[in-house]
Design brief:
single chain, 171 residues, 5-stranded antiparallel sheet
């Protein structure tokens, strides 16, 4: 079945019909009491699903609040945060990180972080980054940032691969 948002009633209906068909024939109630019990069971299940839906909405709201708070904390942190890919391309940077480099955030988007490092130290940083992406462990590395027009800056970088392995966070 094609992937569609589960919220679409027509999608849910078709998915339910498919599952029902997979289960085969279903015994039909034969008496009024059986029909009454079936109706009660249906109403109870409907109420259970409504309660679950309310709980899921509450959990989603709480998760969004936690995400927003974490994003705000990272944005306002007094240290630079960078999110980079294995080739060191910068995908995200907080304000402090941009200030540290001496550039605007939008200028750093898609820049390779390694290009901001003192040339003699680039190979060591690339090796460090390879190790970070090859394992689930975090690590640290001392580097010298060499941004044109600024005094070289000695920094200690802490890095950890993201859960999906596609990016790494540098602090």
């Amino acid at each position: 079945m094609p992937s569609q948002p589960a919220r679409e009633p027509s999608f849910l209906r078709r998915a339910a019909e498919d599952r029902l068909q997979e289960k085969g024939t279903i015994a039909r109630p034969s008496s009024a009491a059986d029909w009454h019990q079936l109706a009660l069971d249906y109403e109870m299940r409907l109420i259970e699903l409504e309660i679950q839906n309310e709980e899921l909405k509450q959990s989603l709201a709480e998760s969004q609040t936690a995400h927003d708070l974490a994003s705000e904390l990272i944005e306002l942190a007094p240290v630079g945060y960078f999110e980079i890919s294995p080739d060191s391309t910068i995908h995200k940077v907080n304000e402090c990180g941009a200030n540290l480099i001496g550039m605007k955030r939008d200028q750093l988007n898609q820049v390779r972080f390694v290009s901001l490092i003192d040339p003699p130290a680039r190979a060591a940083f690339e090796g460090f980054l390879t190790q970070i992406f090859a394992s689930e462990a975090s690590g640290t590395c001392d580097i010298t940032l060499d941004v044109h027009g600024h005094t070289p800056l000695f920094v200690n970088v802490h890095a950890q691969r993201s859960n999906d392995g596609a990016k790494s966070q540098l602090i």
